[in-house]
Specification:
Elements: H1 5-8, H2 18-36, H3 61-73, H4 86-97, E1 113-114, H5 117-128, H6 158-175, E2 182-187, E3 205-207, E4 211-219, E5 223-234, E6 241-247, E7 250-257, E8 265-273, E9 277-285, E10 289-290, E11 301-313, H7 322-327, H8 338-353, H9 359-374, H10 379-391, H11 394-397, E12 398-399, E13 408-409, H12 412-423, H13 430-438, H14 444-456, H15 461-471, H16 492-511, H17 518-521, E14 524-527, H18 529-535, E15 546-549, H19 562-567, H20 576-586, H21 614-621, H22 625-639, E16 653-654, E17 657-658, E18 662-664, E19 670-672, H23 673-682, H24 685-701, H25 710-721, H26 727-736, H27 738-741, E20 742-743
Antiparallel strand pairs: 1-12, 2-11, 3-11, 4-9, 5-8, 5-11, 6-7, 6-9, 10-11, 13-20, 14-15, 16-17, 18-19
Helix pairs in contact: 2-4, 3-4, 6-10, 8-9, 8-10, 9-10, 12-13, 14-26, 15-16, 20-22, 24-25, 24-26, 25-26
Length: 752
């Protein structure tokens, strides 16, 4: 019988390497039974972890790996429990680590992934070349494993599909100019009015008092345009009627309208359009006159009548938008339709689908445009319909990777797509497409070279905007609400500055290929004057950000950024619990379990709060046995940051009492203040590096980690230490892994 008899009594083992099975049974099982099973067993095991339920160690590889990390860090067994001797601790760690599966045995499989909002906007920017950001109007993306790029949660609702269809039509309209100049006339009687003036009996708009009316026109091309307005007046008083014409609320010109009924006048004025979009053109009556007692009845009331408003253009030489010439590279006409259309839409669909479009797909698009030709539409209108169809296609909206019966290597286009959305949050560029076509992306040297190139590209800022802001939970900063009475310095501008500091810092680590350990303990950051004043750092003037040394201060690394300190606080006080939990989850990869049923909350009002520091209130809270074990892990870390208030300023008192920023970790380590806390974290480099590796790998793959990933993550984290912890090596290691370059077949996944 195996040594862990309680765990495996009467159960058969799944196949496993004999030496690994033997080592687990001999080294880990007896110590687990002695030190862990007493608490981690039964129907309500501590932390929800039951070691007595283990039958096959390989099936619980992830659990045992986490257990090894907790034992290694001293987190387990918890303070107050029976402790392992140093020799036993070493033996247990080795035995637990012998259980995981062989690296690369399961590359995993990503669920069909929809583009999230950010990826959609960026892809439209790079595919079409328009500044329109339709994704901003889409419903928020769901989040899984901390990121909004996880295939399992990126569902497609009917509302979102409607948004996609509307966006596809608008993008195609903005991107492709019409073959014929715009000429649109709108009856003024159909336009809404600001003052209740009525529509004319025979059309048009009748102004009996000062007011305006207008309509919006979709203008797709840059160039010179002409506005025409037909109007006449019921003249009265010393002056003729006056009419103002405005574009987007700005008056372009004011005209005298001396014409009378039956003899209207047409006025016209030019205006320039420097970018496509909707323009509102309005006309208004500006000099109403009413003298009911005038001797001449015809001189008693001055009114303006506007019949219609017309816009025409571009006038003269046309300047086609870059998006138009990017898509229509082969001109066509009604006489030359099918061939040019197939070439234009084939190229566009291949870029949009991030792979060569099939002959059947191209033929289907061309057949669709024949409907435009049949109704006497232009070639450009046909292309516009084809582009709309491509942008509404699942092949564009989803990143598909077909599954074979067996595990397979990804092809060049699939690798290029994974790589570009990982590092840039957008589609592959021309170089990646060329390498995908040539098959060179399968070469590790070529892959490394592309990573270096892409990390130097400005589009790599997407890693800071999307990965870092989600890894560090800083998107919560947009909804943070520090009490304005207690913290009047905090406003929306400072909120933006806080986020920018962290994004610039992360971006510098990426661009300069610095050590990832600087996330924990860098002696520099980026500040502008408002943030420098918040931090108490002199010599920084103006709103422009610049690199600033933190030498001589207690700050260092992301943990002392105001952004992090703000999102881990409550509106009116600090929260050592939130701050400690944040460190455990995002820096050490050891999140505490959810609060057990019956766990209370920290009192926020009444006698239990009055005159007590946050630390004193937490100490009272921890007397509840339901809360003690988890708070013993979180609170000490948070106490080390108590010298920072809820918006990240330094402070020396809380409720009139001196700040106590000492902490005692579960393994008995004592420290005081943020500087000492950083040293503690630097002493746990393996845990931080593994946590960062797992987070970045999850983001890169678009799926949650599995047991099959654990050996790969451990291998990368170990190798990173030998490469001076350079960020580029971390990225290259993920990109070269089987998890990134392969896809599991139809066989079942390895559970974690």
């Amino acid at each position: 019988m195996p040594a862990l008899g309680l765990l495996a009594l009467g159960m058969a083992y799944a196949p496993q390497a004999p030496e690994r099975r033997s080592r687990f049974d001999a080294d880990a099982a007896p110590l687990l039974k002695k030190y862990c099973v007493p608490c981690h067993s039964g129907k309500s095991p501590a932390g929800g972890v039951a070691f007595d339920a283990i039958r096959d160690p390989r099936a619980h590889a992830s659990l045992l790996t986490r257990a090894a990390r907790n034992v290694s860090s001293g987190t387990m067994p918890p303070s107050g429990a029976k402790q392992l001797t140093p020799a036993e601790r070493k033996t247990l760690i080795a035995g637990l680590e012998s259980a995981p599966a062989t690296p690369g045995s399961d590359p995993g499989r990503v669920t069909l992934r929809r583009l999230n909002r950010t990826e959609y906007n960026n892809t439209i920017r790079d595919l079409v070349g328009v500044s329109f950001r339709p994704g901003d109007d889409f419903p928020s993306d769901d989040v899984g494993y901390g990121f909004d790029s996880i295939g399992d949660v990126l569902s497609l609702s009917p509302l979102l599909m409607e948004k996609y269809l509307d966006a596809a039509e608008k993008i195609a309209q903005l991107a492709i100019a019409s073959a014929k100049p715009l000429l649109v006339r709108v009856d003024a009687g159909e336009m809404p009015d600001t003052q209740g003036n009525r529509a004319g009996d025979s059309g048009g708009r009748w102004f009996t008092s000062n007011g305006s009316t207008g309509a919006a026109f979709d203008i797709r091309e840059v160039g010179n345009y002409r506005i025409k307005v037909q109007a006449w007046g019921q003249q009265a008083g010393p002056d003729p009627c006056r009419m103002a014409v405005a574009v987007d609320g700005k008056v372009i010109e004011t005209f005298t309208v001396a014409a009378t009924e039956g003899h209207p006048t047409v006025v016209e004025l030019p205006f320039r359009v420097d970018g496509p979009g909707r323009r509102r053109i309005s006309v208004g009556f500006t000099n109403d006159y009413y003298m009911p007692n005038a001797a001449d009845p015809k001189q008693r009331d001055r009114n303006l009548a506007v019949d219609w408003v017309e816009i025409e253009g571009p006038i003269g030489p046309r300047t086609l938008p870059p998006s138009h010439t990017r898509i229509i590279t082969t001109p066509g006409s009604r006489d030359q339709w099918a061939g040019p259309m197939a070439e234009v839409l084939g190229k566009f669909a291949s870029r949009a689908f991030r792979r060569p479009a099939t002959r059947a797909e191209i033929d289907g698009l061309v057949a669709l445009t024949e409907k435009v030709k049949a109704r006497q539409g232009t070639f450009e209108e046909g292309v516009r319909l084809g582009v709309t169809a491509v942008l509404a296609s699942p092949s564009f909206l989803f990143r598909a990777e077909p599954t074979d019966a067996k595990t397979r290597e990804l092809n060049g286009y699939e690798i290029a797509t994974r790589l570009s959305y990982f590092l840039w949050s957008t589609m592959p560029d021309d170089r990646l497409f060329a390498l995908a076509k040539s098959g060179k992306l399968a070469d590790p040297k070529a892959l490394d070279a592309e990573v270096d190139r892409m990390l130097r590209d400005p589009k790599a800022s997407a890693l800071a905007e999307n990965f870092a802001m989600q890894w560090l939970e800083l998107r919560k900063l947009t909804t943070a609400t520090p009490d304005p009475t207690l913290f009047p310095e905090f406003d929306d501008r400072l909120r933006i500055d806080m986020a920018e500091e962290t994004q610039r810092f992360f971006g510098a680590v990426v661009a300069e290929d610095r050590s990832v350990l600087e996330f924990l303990d860098a002696d520099w950051t980026f500040l502008n004057e408002p943030l420098a004043q918040l931090y108490g750092i002199p010599g920084v003037a103006g709103r422009e950000f610049r690199r600033v040394t933190l030498s001589g201060t207690v700050r260092g690394g992301i943990l002392t950024h105001a952004s992090v300190l703000t999102v881990t606080s409550n509106p009116n006080r600090t929260s050592p619990v939130k701050r400690g939990k944040w460190v455990l989850e995002n820096l050490l990869g050891a999140p505490p379990p959810p609060p057990p049923p019956g766990a209370g909350t920290l009192a926020e009002a009444g006698d239990a709060v009055r005159g007590k520091t946050v630390r004193e209130r937490l100490e009272q809270h921890r007397k509840d046995p339901n809360c003690a074990s988890c708070h013993a892990r979180m609170d000490p870390i948070g106490f080390g940051l108590e010298s920072f208030d809820p918006i990240g300023r330094r402070r020396t008192q809380d409720e009139g009492e001196p700040i106590d920023d000492t902490g005692v970790l579960a393994d008995g380590t004592k420290f005081q203040g943020p500087e000492a806390l950083r040293k503690v974290l630097m002493g746990r480099k393996p845990e931080f590096v593994r946590c960062l590796t797992e987070k970045l790998m999850t983001y890169a793959l678009g799926r949650g980690p599995s047991a099959g990933d654990d050996p790969t993550i451990d291998k990368i984290a170990t190798a990173l230490a030998k490469q001076n912890y350079r960020f580029s090596f971390l990225v290259k290691s993920i990109v070269r892994s089987d998890a990134f370059l392969k896809r599991r077949g139809d066989g079942g996944p390895t559970k974690r």
